[in-house]
TrEMBL record:
UniProt KW Oxidoreductase keyword: yes
Record protein name field: FAD-binding domain-containing protein
A Pfam family of this chain: FAD_binding_4
GO molecular function: FAD binding; oxidoreductase activity
Domain of life: Eukaryota
Length: 485
């Protein structure tokens, strides 16, 4: 026991020493682009995370690069220092501690790399990895153009895209990652390179779903398409209307010909303080059509509020920032069944209703269509590694999330959050409704989304890692996120 404690103490000290040496060398090479604890720029980055779990980590220093070359130089320095680890942060949406920040190592705050440049023929938008989707949409709106990107404009391009990326436009054009025509990326040896269908095509495919396992993406070149205003309907229903809402949701998902202009998120919200459930629906139609027929059944369900508007993508994506709170995510994917959605609610209500930690907690269970037509687009752009195909049929994704203010409740919240997910998956499996796919951008740290891509894709990812990162920099020096081992 004493030897184990001594070893742990030694390795912690080694990491601290490595970080100090690393930060000193980075400061020598990159000067004011490196900030240290207590400095205002360091504090700005620390205060920008969406979750308290991430904000509470304390890196030894923070890099705010102003060019891809800065990133390349930093990686080259870091890999030369034993014990130096790093994390990569975009807009800081990932809730789990360590996914975009690090204790004692180096955090790359990519938000200064946020340029947006439209190609001469307007077919490709080059976006710095630190940009938010709102920056992208505000840039493109005057051109009547869009790209497949995040639905919340405050989410980052660099975080969402390598995990797949569900967009309002995904049924029409595929995952966000399927619309990347080129990645500019810094590899584990500090090399700055590009990956696309004709150059490093295996890396190109791996980056479409493989998250932070291969390099630091510094720029995304995204395919654009014509886009004007959207039709947006927001509905709220009393929980007593859940059967009708779930049936309307399911009828949209299972339609013989899924309407590719449809973007729907149905959310079960529960507040432990008021002990009240409510159902909200964000029903977006990507054409300027008032009361689109695809949502007629849903709109006919008696509601407590109902608003519609025709608006621009940028205006709709400009959501209010969430105050810093503790967060968690977990996910699963199911074949459509209105009856099983009722089972999901019963499980959630049975496990969450009586849990009321100090300060309260809000649970949000989002249900989002994953139609076969959405995943069919991947084959047109070199494929991805997500492991879903049209043969899987129409599905829907569940995102269970929670927000709460009291950090002392974190272990209890984590424990209780696992219970409904496990029960829901168990029942779905028994009924033949559980799909293997776990959407990595929604996954909990204890889940295995990379394995859910299938054995063949996982082996492919491991092979690409060995070819482009033979020293395993992004498996060992970037400990956050989902690793290939």
């Amino acid at each position: 026991m004493k030897s184990t404690l001594a070893f742990l103490s030694y390795t912690a000290a080694a990491r601290a020493t490595g970080a100090n040496i690393c930060c000193a060398q980075l400061q020598d090479a990159l000067d004011t682009k490196i900030t240290l604890p207590g400095q205002s720029t360091y504090n700005t980055t620390e205060n920008s995370y969406w979750s308290l779990q991430e904000a509470n980590l304390q890196p030894g220093c923070i890099l705010r690069p102003s060019s891809p070359q800065d990133v390349a130089k930093a990686v080259s320095i870091i890999v030369g220092v034993d014990g130096c680890t790093f994390a990569i942060k975009g807009q800081g949406h990932a809730p789990a501690a360590g996914f975009a920040n690090i204790d004692g190592g180096v955090t790359f705050d990519m938000t200064s790399l946020d340029s947006t440049v439209l190609s001469h023929d307007k077919s490709v938008l080059s976006v710095g990895a630190g940009a938010s989707w709102l920056q992208v949409y505000e840039y493109l709106d005057p051109y009547n153009l869009a790209v497949a990107g995040g639905r919340n404009g405050l989410v980052g391009v660099g975080g969402l895209t390598p995990g797949g990326g569900i967009s309002h436009f995904s049924p029409r054009v595929g995952w966000a990652c399927d619309n990347v025509v080129n990645f500019e990326v810094v590899l584990g040896d500090g090399t700055l390179t590009n990956a696309n269908q004709t150059s490093n095509s295996d890396l190109y495919r791996a980056l479409k779903g493989g998250v932070n396992n291969f390099g630091v993406v510094t720029r995304f070149d995204l395919a654009t398409f014509p886009q004007g205003n959207l039709s947006v309907t927001k509905l709220a229903h009393d929980i007593s209307q859940r059967k009708a809402v779930f049936q309307a949701f399911t009828d949209i998902v299972v339609a013989p010909k899924f309407d590719v202009d449809t973007s729907l998120v149905t959310v079960l919200l529960y507040n432990s303080t008021s002990k009240a459930w409510v159902i909200s629906n964000s029903a977006v139609y990507t054409q300027p059509v008032v009361n689109p027929p695809v949502f007629a059944e849903l709109a006919a369900v008696p509601s407590v509020s109902n608003s519609s508007e025709i608006t621009s993508l940028a205006a709709y994506a400009k959501e209010a920032a969430t105050p810093p709170l503790n967060w968690l995510f977990a996910t699963a994917t199911f074949k459509p069944s209105a009856k099983f959605m009722l089972d999901i609610f019963d499980i959630l209500n049975g496990t969450l209703y009586s849990f009321n930690p100090e300060g309260g907690i809000v649970w949000s269970i989002a249900l989002e269509p994953l139609p076969a037509v959405l995943v069919s687009h991947a084959a047109k752009t070199g494929g991805n590694v997500l492991g879903v195909s049209p043969e899987d049929g129409n599905s829907y994704v569940m995102l269970l999330s929670a927000l709460w203010p009291n950090s002392a409740s974190n272990p209890a919240v984590d424990q209780i959050s696992r219970e409904p997910v496990a029960k829901i998956e168990s029942q779905a499996r028994a009924k033949g409704l559980l799909q293997k796919f776990q959407y990595i951008n929604y996954a909990a740290p204890y889940q295995k989304p990379l394995a859910s891509y299938g054995a063949k894709n996982l082996e492919f990812l491991k092979g690409v890692s060995k070819r482009y990162d033979p020293e395993g920099v992004f498996q060992t020096r970037v400990p956050g996120g989902f690793k290939l081992a």
